[in-house]
Amino acid sequence: MNQNFKDLQVKIDYTFKDENKLVKALTHRSYINEHRDENLQSNETYEFLGDSILEFWISDKLFRQFPQFNEGDLTNLRSLIVCTQNLSLIASNINLGNFIMLSKGEERHGGRTNQSILADTFEAILGSIYLDDGIVPAFKFLDKTLTESISKLSSKQIYKDPKSLFQEIAQSKRGITPKYQTVSESGPDHQKNFEVAVYVGEELVATGCGNSKQKAEEDASIKATKIFTNLV
Asked: Are 26 and 44 spatial neighbours (Cβ–Cβ below 8 Å)?
């Protein structure tokens, strides 16, 4: 196997029995478009599986760790932890972007630091670990990578997901609730890509992309929050 992939296994503290599963987890669909003769598959089905495992793990973790929290706080804290922005930060901490197999075009356009690609690949890695050796090492991987994030985010007094945070900022600055509108939808059913725009009144503030409307709206709200708070 590529030495770089072996380095990644050291970083995530897991050695694959079937290294082909790791290869698939790291294969972005753009790479396949440039290497059709290699008979590869993208990581999107692994991402789908990893997303479900993550949702269960974090729900169970928060329920047990914070019995004093009400349903609303648990839901919002969960959203903060599993949102694209946070997962991409976790992925960056293990330098996951260096290992993703991307097309040359995607790489030129900053694919290795793209929040959506990083978060999706993190979930695909989770799915691949589960398929390789079951739920125990998958949960161990999440314990290793997300425990610090849970501690940090749960220390906040108020838990807001990206859309709720931007809504609060927009209402404070403009007195208007943001609205989201789907700009485009492309790809087959199993490889959908959505582009969503967020408006404050008639003003287009930002657009976001993702493989679901929810993720695209989240991406747009993160960008809009940065714009409204002069971070970009």
From this structure: no
